[in-house]
Design goal:
By secondary structure, the chain is of the alpha/beta class. 30% of the residues lie in helices and 26% in strands. It has ten helices and twelve strands. Strands 1, 2, 3, 4, 5, 6, 7, 8, 9, 10, 11 and 12 form a twelve-stranded mixed beta sheet that branches. Helix 1 links the parallel strand 1 and strand 2. Helix 1 packs across helix 3. The longest helix is centred in the C-terminal third of the chain and has 17 residues. The two termini are 28 Å apart. Pfam families: HTS.
Length: 305
């Protein structure tokens, strides 16, 4: 089944070239099926690239998924034209009466700020509060995972001595959990952040189950016991060159950052990038959509109230 996206969204051309099946909303209304309604709150600076990354994963499932892109009203992106946002995005006011099967909130380059200092923090709190009754399942990525854990459970973040950047190995903690069904015992995933979570503190919250960890990168994957909240501290959605582009950007800005680890063959930047996380990324999103959303969400979303 395809992922349904807005007509003329530039990411559609990329998906077409990669043979990822999608359809426009106009065509989807003629399908005799109720698609999963998924909202994506895109907080990343390069919104077009982030769209492509998540749509690749959401479009590689057997389920029909209808996408609504959201942006903040309290903060105007400096990297995306307002005309583009007006054409393809909605703000919370446009959707606050709607119900969704799922919500994805992306990472954001604001992790060194205290949560309350983030320009759109109050708006994000409103969205998280709204999601409790209007969204069946939520997936929080990187900074959003830290923000949601702070909002819902009071779990703070810790600033790292240096930026964590690269591809890290992870170990599955509970092989029987549906979210990690089919995972290898050890798998790889990208990380790109300046902060981390205190695993010992997280483990004290019985409402949360830690599902995968890394010796170097810490907690990677966790979920609420009812499965309606999933927290991913890494960036499984990243494409091949994202870490390289971030590293180049940081160096140009004069930041003291190290070359992403386990990224180039032999850790040699003159060699090719070695993609080791693509299979895991697809499996993670397939499992989440199937076991945490599709098999449990009510057919009539209004029942969430």
């Amino acid at each position: 089944m395809p992922v349904t996206i807005p007509k003329d969204l530039p990411a559609g051309e990329v998906l077409k070239q990669e043979n990822i099946f999608f359809m426009t909303a106009e065509r989807a209304i003629h399908q005799d099926i109720r698609p999963l309604k998924v909202a994506i709150l895109n907080l990343m600076p390069n919104k077009m690239r982030t769209e492509e990354q998540f749509l690749r994963l959401l479009g590689n499932t057997a389920l029909q998924v209808e996408i609504t892109f959201l942006t903040t009203a309290s903060y105007q992106s400096k990297n995306t034209p307002s005309s583009y946002l007006k054409a393809f995005y909605k703000t919370f006011d446009h959707v606050k009466e709607e119900h969704y099967d799922a919500l994805i909130i992306t990472g954001s380059p604001v992790e060194t700020l205290a949560f309350e200092e983030v320009a759109y923090w109050q708006e994000l709190e409103t969205i998280l509060r709204w999601a409790d009754k209007h969204v069946f399942a939520s997936l929080f990525v990187c900074w959003a995972a830290q923000a949601a854990l702070y909002y819902y459970y009071g779990i703070g973040k810790q600033v790292l001595d240096k930026k964590l950047s690269g591809i890290y190995s992870h170990t599955v903690r509970d092989r029987n959990h549906p979210l990690v069904r089919g995972f290898d015992d050890v798998f790889w995933a990208p990380h790109s952040r300046h902060t981390t979570l205190d695993e010992a503190r997280l483990a004290k919250h019985k409402e949360i189950q830690i599902l995968a960890t890394s010796k170097e990168a810490g907690v990677y994957l966790a979920a609420s016991q009812n499965g309606r909240q999933v927290f991913v501290t890494g960036h499984s959605e990243y494409d091949e060159r994202t870490l390289l582009d971030e590293y180049t950007r940081d160096i140009a800005a004069g930041a003291d950052v190290q070359l992403p680890v386990n990224y180039f063959q032999g850790d040699d930047p003159e060699q090719e990038i070695l993609v080791t996380w693509r299979g895991h990324a697809n499996l993670l999103f397939n499992n989440w959509l199937n076991y945490h959303v599709y098999q449990n969400t009510p057919y009539h979303l209004e029942e969430l109230d």
